[in-house]
Amino acid sequence: MNRWLLWVPLVLFGIFFAVVAAGLIRPKDNIIESKMVGKPIPEFSLPAAIEQRPALATTDLATGKPQLLNIFASWCVPCIAEAPQLLELERAGVQINGIASRDTPADIANFLNRWGNPYVRIGTDVRSIVQLELGSSGVPETFVIDGKGVIVHQHIGDIRKEDVPELLEILEKAG
Amino acid sequence: MIRILTLIVTLLALPFSVPLAAQNALPASPYAHQQLDDPVQEEKARSLMEELRCLKCQSQSIADSDAPMAGDMRSQVRERIAAGATPEEVRSWLIERYGDWVTYNPPVNAVTGPLWIAPIVLLILAIWLARGRFRRRKNSKKDAS
Question: In this complex, which of A32, A102, A103 lies closest to B101 when CB atoms are compared?
Fold first, then answer.
């Protein structure tokens, strides 16, 4: 019998060990990207979240101009962190649509009074129905939608200062 | 002393608990905690919910999870099944949006295939190896006698 064959089990064990060790060492990846990126925005129509802003439906998102769709909530702490960046994007001329997740009109109004209101439209998604349709798994999340209403990018988590130029670039490319 | 400490701890925890409680400010979705009237449909929904992963608490199924979003997902599953969808239709509706990740019963494809095939290959290999050894031992016994 070939003597080299004796080493095969040890080598197999070595490979097994390396795979398991790598899995243990690697930090846990909790981010679930939506499979809807590259597809048209699903059909939906949400009632207005507050009196000052109109309601939001799919047809409002395919207007020939790229837009942002931001999912937020008054109970979400990272949403406060990204508020200045959303205002900065608004100042740069970006049209931002909001979806308020599991929230009450009074809480939403309070939140926007306190941290600023960058939205042109806000729909209220009290049962996470549109969030599930979009393949979104949390708040905040931001989708870039091109002029034809196709989702071109998903930003998971709060928008940081350094993310703003990237989002502007993606918006420009989508135009 | 203990009472004062409890008070301090409670006060310190308060700012953290408020935003979390607020996402429960709204009533749960109609079928988040309510079973379907038809026991056959409920059973279908129930076994599917045990195989769908919660998006917020990723090691739990939506049947186990108390997260508000898991409640919304349970309600969607029950409503869709009540409306006549099969469990597999509901599952693929979610896979279309979240990928295979969302199901605890992943489909067999190029990525998951090796998981199914590997045990069979290893078993065949083991039988083949064992056969070789037994045969050799028989031969060596014969030689000795």
Answer: A32
Considering chain B, what is the average pLDDT of its residues?
85
Angle at B29 between CA B47 and CA B16, to 5 degrees: 105
Task: Name residue A71's beta-bridge partners.
Answer: A99, A141
Cβ distance of B26 and A131 shorter than 8 Å: no
Instruction: Report ipTM for this prediction.
Output: 0.83
Residue of B82, B81, B67 lying closest to B33 (CA atoms) = B67
pLDDT tens readout for residues B25-75: 788 889 999 999 999 999 999 999 999 999 888 889 999 999 999 999 999
Closest CA to B72 of B16, B23, B18: B23
Which of A71, A102, A108 to mutate to probe the B interface, most B CBs <10 Å? A102
Q: Which residues of A touch B23 (CB under 8 A)?
A: 73, 75-76, 101-103
Asked if residue A118 lies in contact with residue A92, where contact means CB atoms within 8 angstroms, the answer is no
Tens-digit pLDDT profile for residues A101-110 = 999 999 999 9
Instruction: Encode pLDDT of B90-126 as tens digits.
Output: 999 999 999 998 999 888 888 889 988 999 999 999 9
